[in-house]
Amino acid sequence: MSDLFNLQNLANLGVLIFLQAVLGFDNLLYVSLESAKAPPDQQARVRRIGILVAIVLRIVLLFVMVHLIERLQAPFFSIHVPGIAEGAFNFATLVFIGGGGFIMYTAVKEISHMLSVHDLESQAGKSEQRSANHVIFMIVLMNLVFSFDSILSALAITKVFLVLAAAIVISGLGMMFMADHVSAFLKKNRKYEVLGLFILLIVGVVLLGEGGHVAHLELFGHPVEPMAKSTFYFSIAVLVIVDVLQSGYQKRLDAERSQGEPAT
Fold this sequence. Notes:
Strands 1-2-3-4 form a 4-stranded antiparallel beta sheet. It folds into 2 domains: 2-227; 232-264. By secondary structure, the chain is mainly alpha-helical. The chain has 9 helices and 4 strands.
């Protein structure tokens, strides 16, 4: 047991917590947006239960991957259509592609719904309201999809199960604390919901690219390449900065128009 608390394991734990926090941003955003579909008086409870269950299942998934990592890497099936599509699909590939496709579908559906609703304030959270159990299920399911990439990355840092599990628990508790604040912010600033959905759309593209790369997928003779993490976070930063600047400029225009002064 004394070997568990050596300097190397503690350093690895710190790196893993940071890694989980960075890679968990998109997960946190999904939790906040999805929980808004539950009945208003149950949304906080839904977030807590969903994240707690997801923490437990993440540890189970970690245990499975530690012991079955070689079997999980073996292809389930492959496709070979010369000049059109070639690739071999294993468990990780199916998780990435399935999760990425579902996230993109969800984001596009929600954006389309926003554009079709005439009275946003009166319709907020009503037309798409779901039961608490359904929302908890979706939070847990997508949490596992998001966690797959982070667990694979964590296994490259250390194979010590207790260190990996501790990082999952600590980052999960941090996510539980932040989820309420993020949800409250989105509820007060509904204009940022669209920004959040576009970020999820990019996350879906990232997962599809990751799945195609793991499968060594080639489409029409061109290999599918994953989006670099630096490119992903740069894109997110640009989206946020543009949205903040546009909001500030819009407020200035509204203020000048209310005073009857021409905008400069």
